[in-house]
Design goal:
The protein is mainly α. The protein is 74% helix and 4% strand.
Length: 223
């Protein structure tokens, strides 16, 4: 998310101000703009978001209920720090949901979406060849978004989105590991190929294989 999106002003008591504040904060955390441990100062957020303090407070409460934010007694709120152990457990849950989405994508993908997935995969190959780790990390998230759109399983997608926001920093660290991009690219290529072939069993297996690989890499960080 661009900084301008976070700071776009709204009337202080605009209808839906709490919803807007909540979504912008969620996006900022998911995009890594607000890193784990980042303090959420209500007065600063009021100025940045252009909504009332009560809307900011309600938005923080909502994100705390999702596990994205934590309130520290006498110290205010901050973006929650997710341990490697929790990241592994969260990825295990995400793996099951992504496998379902991959199967649905294979069943429901359109010819146009197949073309878009193939083109996006080409951009991912180009980013890896160029050594653009940051760009490649962003392209992975966009690929998952395209697969979610093709799967047309909104409940699973909403659940994945909530889990994903807690994993951003860990995933970015993994993307910096030498050789990791090549590994994930091969896994995701197999996933796209299976979806494009409309092979649900293969797509589900490829998705599970990819996230098992992610889990193994996370565990290496813990060791």
């Amino acid at each position: 998310m661009q900084a301008a999106e976070l700071t776009r002003p709204l009337p202080l008591e605009a209808p839906g101000g709490r919803t807007v504040a909540e979504q912008r904060l969620r996006d900022a955390i998911a995009d890594g703009e607000m890193a784990p441990g980042h303090r959420l100062v209500e007065a600063d957020l009021v100025a940045q978001l252009g909504v009332s303090r009560s809307h900011v407070r309600l938005a923080i409460d909502a994100l705390a209920a999702e596990g994205l934010v934590e309130r520290i007694p006498n110290r205010g709120a901050r973006v929650r720090v997710v341990s490697v152990e929790e990241a592994v457990a969260t990825t295990e849950c995400r793996m099951a949901l992504e496998a379902l989405i991959a199967r649905k994508a294979a069943e429901r993908v359109t010819p146009r979406e197949i073309g878009q997935l193939r083109a996006h995969l080409g951009r991912m190959h180009a980013a890896v060849d160029a050594g653009d780790v940051v760009g490649y990390s962003a392209l992975i998230q966009q690929l998952h978004g395209a697969l979610h759109a093709a799967g047309r399983q909104p409940v699973a997608t909403r659940l994945v989105d909530r889990l994903q926001a807690q994993l951003v920093r860990h995933q970015f660290r993994l993307s910096l590991r030498p050789g990791r991009s090549r590994v994930s690219l091969a896994e995701l290529t197999a996933l796209v190929d299976a979806v494009a072939d409309r092979d649900g069993d293969r797509a589900e297996a490829a998705s599970v294989a990819h996230f098992r690989s992610v889990i193994a890499a996370l565990r290496e960080d813990r060791s």
